[in-house]
Write a structure and sequence with these properties.
Blueprint: H1 7-23, H2 28-34, H3 38-41, E1 43-55, E2 60-71, E3 77-81, E4 87-93, E5 96-97, E6 99-104, E7 107-111, E8 121-130, E9 143-148, E10 154-159, E11 181-189, E12 193-195, E13 199-205, E14 210-217, E15 229-231, E16 234-242, E17 245-253, H4 258-264, H5 267-279, E18 289-293, E19 298-299, E20 305-307, H6 331-338, E21 346-348, H7 355-373, H8 375-384, H9 411-424, H10 427-440, E22 444-446, H11 448-459, H12 464-472, E23 478-484, E24 487-493, E25 503-506, E26 512-515, E27 522-525, E28 535-536, E29 543-546
Parallel strand pairs: 1-11, 17-18, 18-20, 21-22, 23-29
Antiparallel strand pairs: 1-2, 2-8, 3-7, 4-5, 4-8, 6-7, 9-10, 10-15, 11-14, 12-15, 13-14, 16-17, 19-20, 23-24, 24-27, 25-26, 25-28
């Protein structure tokens, strides 16, 4: 997901967010949406067949969702999520209408008649309609974006990260359960096109001057990554010869932007080259890669990345790092596509762990810079992101209540990973760990605890205290130093108990070594110690204080 614009606004927004998060009282709906309830635990989604017909003039939709699921254990009541003002009209299984109870505004319980036998694969169909929530500030406060192009024609798209896919279609709206595949069938008036995830299987024309587009995703897909886009689009295509062979690239843009897109979207190949180097093969060769122009800034919709950055480099023309490197590439193409590895391939199992998506993907921006401009350039870019860190609330939020942690998950998450790379001090190993994550957690949902354990195991470094400090606390560790005759005394402060992260220092020009501070004073004897020559590696996200 994209970051909020402007650093000053970011800090104000983040501070407001943190204050709200600290005082927020969670509702029953928060818990039912954010947890694996008994009515969710007994079944596993295997496939969705989503059919929608939007009425572009009235801004209403009607449709159905056919859910295929595996029974894990006995259960007769199923939780389905669909947010108002949309209405679940009826549910059917094997020709029978099911009893539907509305538990809260956006949560329904279906009472199944057929015995649910563990191991069996079952199907039911949900029918719904209504005027979906209009996006207030997409993509951060999402829903349906009903816009117009320069000729006054409809220009429509969806976005729903955090808000949940149930804002526009009925589903099991929890990130821990993804379908193994999905079909999306969209019917729109001619001459409009309807673009969704995966590959276009077929288009057919209907007697009522509409066309139906059938899209199919062969791979698992997270709910918020499913997308609907409607406009009079121009399409052009390309291919990329990558690590798994030939990858198709498809681009859908407004006609007036076709020439600009043909130039700007060349960066997609740069992105693929860099990220396949760092993270391994693009995770969805079977479904292809697409950029789709939208009326909002952008979103990591799987295999159909939303693009609205105005065909210019930077973040709406700005460099978020203030390093100069952020204006050499299109932020939305690079950042949102980076989510194909961290969000769509590796997906959080609870939104509290959203840093897995945003921290790694913000870090990927620095790796992209490094791939094309060198290691020092990538490091300078990542250090530049620190200017927007507020440190007002932890990166990880409360679990089981459908809420995320602090927006620091973007720049602070990136600098946590950059700091760990310095601790590892082996670039070849670090790259293999990043690629290993995407291989070993391929198409899986994971927790922060799993990612933390993986990095600890595969780097061979004890990172437990590092993760605890940077993910679950707000203080930035302070390395306190003082010079006593020919000794350097040092310790960690402003940190959790027993914090013991190693740090790299130079006691003489270009003479780098590791210190292993704890929260207790340690000393290092050094001949001809000149305090002016002492440097601490600026790539560690810490503060340094000289004390008496």
């Amino acid at each position: 997901m994209t970051k909020p614009i402007f650093v000053t606004a970011f800090l104000l927004w983040t501070g407001s967010f943190c204050a709200l998060a600290q005082t927020r009282i969670f509702t029953l709906e928060d818990t039912l949406r954010g947890s694996i309830t008994p009515e969710r635990a007994w079944w596993d989604v295997t496939y969705y067949r989503l059919t929608i017909q939007p009425n572009l003039d009235s801004q209403r939709i009607s449709g159905s969702n056919e859910i295929h699921y595996r029974v894990l254990k006995p259960g007769q009541v199923m939780q389905i999520d669909l947010q108002p003002p949309l209405l679940l009209e009826r549910a059917e299984q094997e020709g029978e209408t099911l009893s539907v109870e509305r538990v809260t505004k956006g949560i329904y319980h279906l009472k199944l008649r057929k015995e649910q036998v563990p191991g069996s694969i079952e199907t039911l169909t949900l029918h719904y309609r209504g005027r979906p929530r209009r996006a207030r500030n997409a993509p951060w406060d999402g829903g349906f974006s009903w816009a117009r192009d320069s000729l006054g024609r409809h220009f429509v798209a969806t976005s729903c990260q955090g808000l949940g896919a149930s804002v526009w279609w009925p589903c099991k709206d929890h990130p821990a359960d993804e379908p193994d595949s999905q079909t999306v069938i969209l019917t729109v008036p001619i001459p409009y096109q309807a673009i969704s995830n995966g590959r276009l299987r077929q288009i057919w024309e209907n007697p009522d001057s509409t066309r139906t587009f059938e899209w199919h995703v062969q791979n698992p897909i997270n709910n918020y990554g499913v997308t609907l886009n409607v406009a009079v689009y121009e399409h052009f295509a390309d291919t990329f010869h990558g690590e798994k062979g030939l990858l198709t690239l498809d681009y859908y843009v407004l006609p007036e932007n076709l020439l600009k897109a043909k130039t700007q979207f060349r960066q997609a190949k740069d992105m693929l080259r860099a990220f396949e180097y760092w993270f391994g093969p693009y995770p969805f060769y079977e479904d292809g890669y697409k950029l789709v122009e939208t009326p909002f800034l952008g979103m990591e919709h799987q295999s159909a990345v939303a693009y609205g950055n105005g065909y210019r480099n930077g973040y709406l023309g700005r460099d978020l790092s203030n390093s100069g490197y952020g204006k050499k590439w299109d932020y939305i193409i690079i950042h949102e596509s980076g989510h194909e590895w961290f969000a769509n391939n590796i997906t959080y199992s609870d939104i509290a762990d959203m840093w897995i998506h945003e921290g790694f993907t913000s870090y990927s921006e620095g790796l992209f810079v490094e791939y094309f401009y060198g290691k020092s350039a990538g490091a300078e870019y990542l250090r530049g992101l620190r200017r927007s860190i507020a440190n007002a609330a932890p990166i990880i939020g409360p679990y089981g209540v459908n809420t995320r942690g602090s927006q620091d998950m973007y720049p602070k998450g990136a600098n946590l990973l950059h700091t760990i790379r310095q601790i590892v001090n082996n670039d070849s190993l670090w790259r293999s760990v990043l690629r290993g994550l995407n291989c070993d957690f391929y198409h899986q949902t994971v927790s922060s605890a799993q990612v933390e354990a993986y990095l600890t195991q595969h780097t061979g470094k004890n990172l437990e205290k590092v993760f605890e400090q940077y993910l679950r606390h707000t203080q930035i560790p302070v390395l306190e130093c003082r010079v006593e005759k020919k000794q350097l005394a040092y310790r960690w402060s402003n940190c959790i108990p027993d914090f013991d992260m190693p740090v790299k220092i130079s006691l003489a020009p270009r003479n780098w070594t590791f210190l292993y501070p704890t929260t207790q004073w340690k000393t290092l004897s050094v001949q001809r110690l000149n305090p002016a020559d002492i440097q601490v590696d600026e790539n560690f996200y810490i503060r340094i204080e000289w004390v008496k």
